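Tutorial sheet, problem 5. The two components below are modelled jointly, 872 residues in total.
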Amino acid sequence: IEENNTQELKATMEPLHPADIAEVMDDLTIDEAKSVYLLLDGEKASDVLIEIPENDRRRFLNVLPPELIASKFIEYMDSDDAADIVADLDEDLKQEVLREIEDTEQAGDIVDLLEYEEDTAGGIMAKELVSVNENWTVATCLKEISKQAEEVDEIYYIYVTDDQQRLKGVLSLKKLILNSTNTKISNLYEPDVKMVRTNTRQEEVAEIMDKYDLVAIPVIDDIGRLKGRITFDDVIDFVREEAERDYQMISGITGDVEPDDKPWELIRARFPWLLVGLLGGIMGALVLGSYESEISHVTELAFFIPLIAAMAGNVGVQSSSIVVQSIASGVKDVETTGKRLLKELMVSFATAAIFAILIFIYNYFVQGNINLTLSVSISLFIVMLYASFFGTLIPLLLNRLKIDPALATGPFITTMNDILGLFIYFGVGKMFFDFL
Amino acid sequence: IEENNTQELKATMEPLHPADIAEVMDDLTIDEAKSVYLLLDGEKASDVLIEIPENDRRRFLNVLPPELIASKFIEYMDSDDAADIVADLDEDLKQEVLREIEDTEQAGDIVDLLEYEEDTAGGIMAKELVSVNENWTVATCLKEISKQAEEVDEIYYIYVTDDQQRLKGVLSLKKLILNSTNTKISNLYEPDVKMVRTNTRQEEVAEIMDKYDLVAIPVIDDIGRLKGRITFDDVIDFVREEAERDYQMISGITGDVEPDDKPWELIRARFPWLLVGLLGGIMGALVLGSYESEISHVTELAFFIPLIAAMAGNVGVQSSSIVVQSIASGVKDVETTGKRLLKELMVSFATAAIFAILIFIYNYFVQGNINLTLSVSISLFIVMLYASFFGTLIPLLLNRLKIDPALATGPFITTMNDILGLFIYFGVGKMFFDFL
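Model answer (structure tokens):
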């Protein structure tokens, strides 16, 4: 692909969509990618830049001169993308790039957006939108829209404001087209509009847009002035990222990795939770070591160690993942914490009883040793009960403490359950065999 | 809420959004819900019906008379929602409802849509869209749009077709507004448009719309005729559902459950994987039983059973979840199966070596027994190596066989890894202690 045949390369890329070019660039070295960029015209180069993964983008931008970043990329971008990219730059470079932006209005928009917290509506909204005054007529609107529309890729909704820029409602293009040109906007617009504030949390924005199937939502400040809008593609990205994060948490992986990453990145992502597993295993060994005489007297007790550990782990993960998923999907406060724990207790009581009986039947007929049979059944019952109880309680607690509840699904809880499970198992076992 | 004060109730619900009413209805009994429905006018009642969970909807509809379903709900719905609802009805009721629909064009649309497979573009598309002929002028278009727009909630794009209804391109409302009324459409439309076929799989539709940030995508048949369109809200729902399914798979839960479900539904969802865990535990006990004399001679060997099992499980889940997630996010064929396995082998070799050394250091200084130390380290190394190898291989194989690869992340593989891990551990241990 890289034979310095620039003319031909340029011609090949012309008809491609930015997202496709970004995919191809992913396989190139940084120098190759740089030379490909310089071939693209500004509009396309900036679209491609938005599509490439964040890490690559940061590495790439930090080697470019600031005036090039400003003139080649930023100037062609919507304010939300531009702000994201500027926010990622090193502090020095950031200041220089901002100074190099020729369009002062755009530079001002970017600086405004950088003020908002990253995970709020203000942090993800774009300044570009089409707004009209409620006192205008359809004809004035159409003229005004044709001016504003140049900066906006897709219109979706037209926002109607009063003289103080306060949001009054929305107007669909459909309505605008279907009405005569001298109708006043105030008679046409829909005043009942869903909106969010600049400080609304990203999760909540996504929930609202998803619930009401909105393609875009307006963002207002504390006194109701229209500040920007958020579009559906941000919501899709957010839903996907949240799901991926929870998934990686439950599978014991730290950070955002893909199979295409470099081997050492994959090793680093796995290391922390494996270390937790190792430490848990060592603690397990210490617990078992303290029951050394029991194990050497009744070797059969050791046989059911994997069973107890596996059931404790499985039940715990099931319980916490149900809670985590319901928190993530926004089902909250439908039931109180206490009520939920009570139901979980009922469910786990029944489940634990079923499995305690199953293993009792197996052991009674196959193993024959009544003390072992009773020890395994009773401790399995207790272990499953507390494992699902903790599995429910801990994510709920973490959520209360504003810590990501998905942490509870990681190997940490499983490991803790394993160790506690061993304690209970040998505690019960010791009791039964001491009775003899 | 339910004091038969119908007038008041009706007034309360008037300003509410259908999604909110659906949420309230969720807490009512089926009879209460039925009486609330009959208070709502048709448009609203049908919107609410779309928002309530599928199971509740099915139960509710199957007790209503067919002519009521047709006149009160179906007639006000878009064809895609109507088809979904009709598809859910029992066969007899389905036929009757279809016969009761007065608008024969709509009935025809529904029957057409029912022909497509549920998980294809045809199965999720709606028939309602705005299309214009390439030979028309802007003025004709505007007139035609005002006719068609009545049936379409949101326009998003105007599709341009030729005389044979073949899709030629799209036209934005923006362009339509900004051009003079006698311009011909053929000079305005954008011919380079992303589209899918009726038999394109749902996953692929979601990928394309997400990748190119499309708010709607047209669906064509094999000879290019425009058949319908799919909108962004279907994609958000799909992304969310896919993520939830994978998450439930990895956490060992069968079927779609939420904490608000009834206790017995929660028990049933947990049962299958816990049973796998129980059977695995019993097999583990059998494996350990076959090493009874080794355990009773060298009790310390038993101490590290939880460590080996936990590390095998953790590594296996990490490996398979990375593969599953990359398959789900559409990163495919970037690397071949062979290449991926080779890299996974490298990564797991390094990881296994690190942890084997760590446990060696611990045991060497704390435990002191050199045979035990070597047994644990060497078997941990082997176990981690094969667990991550299988963790990568099995989801890739399942995917080849068109089985959901997420199945590999469930407790099945973890359980298998546990058992194999015990075999390897005691095999290695036996070797070392026999040497003495």
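Marking note: The mean pLDDT of chain A is 84. Full credit if you identified this.
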